[in-house]
Amino acid sequence: MTENIVTTTSTVTMDDGACLHVKVLGDDPKATKPLLIALHGAPGLSTLVDPESSFAFLSGTFRVLVFDARGSGASDLTGPYTHERWINDIENLREWAGAEKFLLAGGSYGGFIALDYALLHGDRLLGIILRDTWANGAVGMMTALANIVTSDRLRVDVARQIRVWSGILYDDKDFEEGVMEILPIYDPPEGVSKKAPMSNDTGPKTFEGFVPTVSKYHSATQNAAFGVNMPRFDVRHRLKEIKAPTLVVVGRHDYIAPVHFSQEIADGIPNARLEIFEHSGHAPPADEPEKFQDTVWSFLKAEVL
User: Is the keyword Hydrolase assigned to this protein (predicted)?
Assistant: First the structure.
């Protein structure tokens, strides 16, 4: 929760003229704290709400910068929606924040961007936090689709889910219907979630920063992400090039980006740390917030601060 955290909201113009909706959490007018940039997932659907709720607890030590990626939320719907362009936007924001180096966090699709950023600009990174992500786009997409259409927790339109995960959605309404029918799969099974340690946070959980009553659906962004970017995304054999300290977290019951994908990433990055959250689905910061915060603090104190 961020009610007592000083938050600055800005509209930041990128080098191509597109404007992004940006928040910086924590009062630091002289920019003396190290910078954390946290990326949301689900292009065209998710917003800065997810990384804000996940990393606000660090705002006393870091300047926590979160933003709606172009093509998502309140930011401009100005393409191209490519990893190269999204990475350049991160660079623009780093420069705007006045940081030479920073900590980068990415969840789900944000993890793909974080991995590509680390391979291109690794010298800029103090560390990396990856949450429920994968290193190979084609295998990841097909695994998620297979788990969705075979799940006994869901009743889905199979043809529509194929459109969602292959990036050939008809329109924004098609996207909305495709998302709404799979929401339960992002949570851990009911019996597992009831075993999780109780949280003091009684606020509503969100899927990837997605709140059904207020979210905007941008199917063009989703189509570019999964129809164009994902088939080209495969960093498995380059993970060894990433030298920044890396924390990889994943929910044991994540059916979108299962544990073995995070294990592959942690095995590939030298000295990476893997933490599996036994009572979580696709969102450990929401499912097990106390453990998530303790895990992140432990990593930061050992490797970054």
Answer: yes
Beginning with the edge strand found earlier in the chain, give each strand of the sheet holding 102-107 in spatial order. 7-13, 19-25, 63-67, 35-39, 102-107, 125-131, 246-251, 273-277
First to last CA, the chain: 24
Q: E-strand spans in the chain?
A: 7-13, 19-25, 35-39, 63-67, 102-107, 125-131, 246-251, 273-277
- Smallest CA-to-CA distance from 129 within 105, 148, 94 is with 105
Residue segments in the chain with a per-residue pLDDT below the cut of 50? 1, 198-205, 213-214
Q: How far apart are CA 305 and CA 283, in angstroms?
A: 25
DSSP 33: S
- CA-nearest of 51, 75, 68 to 2 is 51
As a whole number of angstroms, the distance between CA 294 and CA 94 comes to 26
| DSSP assignment string, 63-82 | EEEEEPPTTSTTS---S--S
Is 270 in a helix, a strand, or coil? coil
Beta-carbon contacts of 199 under 8 Å, excluding residues fewer than 6 positions away, are 288, 289, 290
Within a 10 A sphere around the Cβ of 59, how many other Cβ atoms?
Answer: 22
Pick from 64, 34, 31, 35: nearest CA to 48 = 64
CB 261 within 8 A of CB 134: yes
Specify the pairing of strand 35-39 against strand 7-13.
unpaired
3-state secondary structure of 89: helix
Q: Which of 282, 250, 275, 247 is nearest to 50 (CA)?
A: 282
Q: What pLDDT is stored for residue 110 in this prediction?
A: 98
Nearest to 148 by CA among 119, 171, 101, 182: 182
Cβ-contact 167, 228 below 8 angstroms: yes
pTM for this structure?
A: 0.93
Superfamily of domain 7-303 in CATH is Alpha/Beta hydrolase fold, catalytic domain (3.40.50.1820)
